[in-house]
Amino acid sequence: MEKLNFDAAVVPLDGDVDHRAVGAFIDAMCERYDFIERVVVGQSIRGRELYCVRLGARDALPVLYIGAHHGMERLTSAILLRFINEYCEACAADSRIYGMAARYLFSERCIYVLPMLNPDGVEISLHGADPSGPLYDRICRMSGGDFMHWQSNERGVDLNHNYDAGFTEYKEIEQKLGIYGGPGKYSGEYPESEPETAALCKLVRTSEPRLAITLHTQGEEIFCTSGGECPAASRRIGKIISELTGYKLSMPDGTAAYGGFTDWFVAEFGRPSFTIECGRGENPLPASDFFAAYARVRETLFRAPVLV
Fold it and tell me: Can you tell me the distance from the alpha carbon of 292 to that of 282, in angstroms, rounded to the nearest whole number?
């Protein structure tokens, strides 16, 4: 079988992917492999499509992977694209990965992969604010001209604080810290106020995944809490993921303990969900860290679906 080249023509090897690269890669994969499906689950504030790839039989047990909640964490998008690439190649070749037949995984689990939840934020962090954009002046004020460290969406809302999990409590913290919008940490006017988080929550409610994993950078840690508690099922799976990655199973603290997707998913559905902080250093991690970061989570991405 001819191998799909993972090169700059589709997606850069260095991990600095933007929205265009994600779309081009997914289109190429769907053209090459007729057994996967490209789904648009919504649009960003700027109208960029939120691409999702379905890997597996429709009636199989659903699992969800999410990348790039934050603009400067685009490395997570590259990780998920690499996973899609390897998964498809293994299915097409009828090969085994970590001792498991890829086609067995395809028949028993339906993996929804949303590589880039926050395409507008990624564009700002990677390419700078668009002078023609309607919110350009506002973004410049909020960022202070430092676009590289932009985390939020185009409107200045941190998507991983925009879920209905400790939202009211976090609002009190915001006011004390004087957070009213900006490159990160602002939760928005109300839960799911942003089109990106609303689209993701709709996908969750319709697909009903039995397990969810969100990839972030950095810290080499794993979080699985809801209101400070880690359910027994989550802790069991979390320990396995910790062994597979070598990352520490931790408890979030400070502002990181409120409004996140993992907390919302666990509280709302009572099912395991994990935030995996890939790599170590200062965000945005250098593109050269891509392969090392992928190597640490690769086995988890293939094994996690069968842990539920």
Answer: 15
Neighbours of 47 (CB within 10 A): 9
Number of domains into which the chain is organized = 1
- Residue 55, beta-bridge partner list: 36, 111
Question: Which domain does 220 fall in, by range?
Answer: 19-307
Q: What is the pLDDT of residues 210-240, one digit of tens each?
A: 999 999 999 999 999 876 778 888 999 999 9
pLDDT at 156: 96
Which alpha helices (H) appear in the chain, and where do they start and end? 19-32, 75-93, 102-108, 119-127, 136-143, 167-177, 195-207, 232-245, 261-269, 290-303
Across 204-213, 228-237, 255-264, the highest mean pLDDT is recorded for 204-213
- Residue 4: is its pLDDT beyond 50? no
Neighbouring-strand partners of residue 52: 39
Residue 161 lies in a domain: yes
Whether 9 is covered by a domain: the verdict is: no
CA distance 6 to 85: 8
| Residue at 226 is within a domain | yes
What's the whole-number average pLDDT of the chain? 92
Between CA 48 and CA 123 the distance in angstroms is 10
Are 230 and 224 in contact by the 8 Å Cβ rule? The answer is: yes
Q: Are 135 and 155 in contact (CB under 8 A)?
A: yes
Is the peptide bond between 284 and the residue preceding it cis, with omega within 30 degrees of 0?
yes
Q: Domain containing 78 — which CATH number?
A: 3.40.630.10
Tell me, yes or no, whether 53 lies in a domain. yes
